[in-house]
Amino acid sequence: MVQCQLKLRLNAKKEQTCGQWLYHLTSIWNWGIRKIELNAKDKIYFSKNDFQNLLAGHGEKLGIPSHTIQGILSTVHQSWSRCFRRLARKPRLKGMRRPLNSIPFPDPIRTPENGKIKLPGIGKVRFHKMELPEGKIKCGRLIKRASGWYLCLFIDAEPKAIERTGYDIIGVDPGFNDLLTLSTGKKVGHPQEFRAIEKRLAQAQRGHDRKLAARLHERVKNRRKDRNHKLSRKLVAENKTVCFLKDNHRAVAKHFGKSVGDSGHGQLRRFVAYKSLNGGTRYVEPENRNSTRACSTCGALTGPTGLAGLKVRQWVCGACGAHHERDVNSARNALIAGAGCGPRGELCLRVAQSGIPELACWEHQEVGIRWRRIIVERNIRAA
After folding, report:
1. How far is CA 194 from the centre of its chain?
2. Are the C-beta atoms of residues 195 and 216 closer than 8 Å to each other?
3. pLDDT digits (tens, 9 = 90+) for 73-119
4. Which residues fall within 8 angstroms of residue 365, CB to CB, at 6 or more apart?
5. What share of the chain is helix, strand, coil (3-state, %, to 5)?
């Protein structure tokens, strides 16, 4: 399944029709949210098929295709199901501050012809030229953004394979000053898309120009997404194993909220994860506990700790005397934790792959990334 987005060129009449649909679908969304919530108190539950057919026949009254209404109710049911299973938060009502901005089309859509695509209830719509992969369009979703209307298509096609350019094994430590630090010592600079337009955004907000503020936010979002797509593809193409340190962004955001939002590490992790499946790369997310404190040479917990220790960028291990650069040491610990840990926690790495001076076997202890180092002969092959 491949997802593609088309930017539509709606005329004034069709744009007004889509706006009216969003108004009515917002009411249907809020009705569905409240109905499931109130019925759940009385222990009354609906199956997905029963719930999406509760408003059968209302499509003609509202001038909206019935399957579009079913798609909204199906989304409401799925949102509550994830909440009941404790996979997501409670779904919220839609309104002026949190508007509904998408219209589902759950039925298959015809292949575009002559720069036009036909949508149920709207008719043929022009779109900006874009090449689409060959395959059947299973469904679609019309999305309203600050820059216009977009059509998200889900096409039954095979994604293009990512061409491999290397077979390295690396550990990745995310950061804020440098976007990424690799276990090889290489650092990826942080473009800081949000801070680049922060001054212009403040001017738009002080002037109560909501449209300009929304456009600026969308521009930052697109730039960040484009950067993460390119970077994730490069990591997957150049490495056969990627060990990306998993940080608790929710906890870090309490102290560094703007930096966490501007970095987009969570989105980057998701991109690397799904592209690894297509590119034949092994992707691992080791926990970040003690990744900064642990010495990547001997495993002793002698590194800096706490918020006061964040300013310490270089330190010397008190156990073995090894000199470490903070982020590089964390990236190497990520490599050690995720690159070759077997069922019993044993790990062997080559010198060229890990960047560690000696070939060592590490036995995992139960306290995060804390390792007991057992020196072995250099001619033993990596397991």
Report:
1. 18
2. no
3. 999 999 999 999 999 999 999 998 899 999 999 999 999 988 899 99
4. 371, 372
5. 40, 25, 35
- Burial annotation 319-331 (CB, 10 A radius, 16+ → b, else e): eeebebebbbbbb
Q: Where residue 164 falls among pLDDT bands split at 50, 70, 90?
A: confident
- CA–CA gap between residue 13 and residue 90 (Å, rounded): 36
- Side chain identity, residue 326: R
pLDDT 10s digits, 191-219: 888 989 999 999 999 999 999 999 999 99
- Sheet with 360-364, edge to edge strand ranges: 346-348, 360-364, 371-375
Q: Distance (Å, rounded) from C-alpha 375 to C-alpha 307?
A: 34
Taking a C-beta distance cutoff of 8 angstroms, is the pair 236, 242 a contact?
A: yes
Asked if 152 and 3 touch (Cβ cutoff 8 Å), the reply is yes
Distance CA 88, CA 69 (A): 23
CA 318 – CA 313 distance, rounded (Å): 16
Q: Are 224 and 192 in contact (CB under 8 A)?
A: no
What is the DSSP code (8-state) at residue 363?
E
Question: Using one digit for the tens of pLDDT, what is the confidence trace for 327-354?
Answer: 888 888 888 887 654 333 334 343 334 4
What distances in angstroms separate CA 360 from CA 108, 336, 376, one per listed residue?
Answer: 56, 10, 6
Residue spans per domain, the chain: 2-156, 168-284, 286-383
* pLDDT higher than threshold 70 for residue 62: yes
CA 299 to chain centroid: 32
Q: Could you tell me the pLDDT band of residue 245, with boundaries at 50, 70 and 90? A: confident
Determine contact, residues 339/352, Cβ cutoff 8 Å. Answer: no
pLDDT digits (tens, 9 = 90+) for 290-304: 888 888 777 788 778
Cα separation, 348 vs 319, whole angstroms: 22
